[in-house]
Amino acid sequence: MSTTTISRTPAPGRTPVTGGTAARWAAVDSWTMTRRELAHWARQPVQVLVGLVFPVMLLLMFNYLIGGGKGIAGDYAEFLVPGMFALTMAFGLDATMVAVTQDLNKGVIDRFRSLPMTNGAVLVGRSVADMLQSLASLLVMIGVGLAIGWRWHGSFGAALGAVGLLLLLRFAMLWIGIHLAMVAGRPEMVVAVQVLVWPVGFLSNAFTVPQNMPGWLGAAVEWNPMSATATAVRDLFGNDPGVVGTSWAAEHAGLLAVVWPVVLVGVFLPLAVRRFGALSK
User: Cα–Cα distance between 170 and 176 in angstroms, integer?
Assistant: First the structure.
């Protein structure tokens, strides 16, 4: 299917795309694509509900059925809940990946690329909708955490900082998912890609401290981006696990919680945009 490029003469009613006008139309087009993604929520409420409930089920299961993390001093919920916040930021990528691959296979992306719209608005709309859903999921998890006895002991500003780090991690994971979805190309291939997500999530300090693991595994876990975010978030919330690692990664978790997502976004966002731009070539 042949398509024209997205950088084109504006449609009737649009002024020539220059300077501030280009930025305004970029925002308008991106918001239009965001509204499209949000409209899918109303058409697929079960999928949205599953995305909200699944991490809650994991939290309750680990807290009440498997809980009592070895080596954790004090209330296990105060260690587990921030870790589950970080783990939740990796969940739900399958929905994003399936949505992208479905649009690719149904020709929706080609149709959008043939319209006089800003280049990349489709990806921006997808990312904004995903971040809104991630924020909703995080708020649900915070509510459930409070219900099972978790509390934060830091300031409100520190709590907001923790939420910011969690959303930053999600933003990085999102662009990894978008890029891998376009590489996979088909919805059925998403399952194979998902296999890569689970080890990253569970080989972290979300459920227990790395000191309880074999040395080589504990070292790998401490350098996991999700572990860095979980540790930094626990610190901001004032949830002390009672066992603090002595490695450089453990002592500088706050720094890594920013550096890891920024590096991942710096790698995968350009890759995703480049892949998107090459779809019609």
Answer: 10
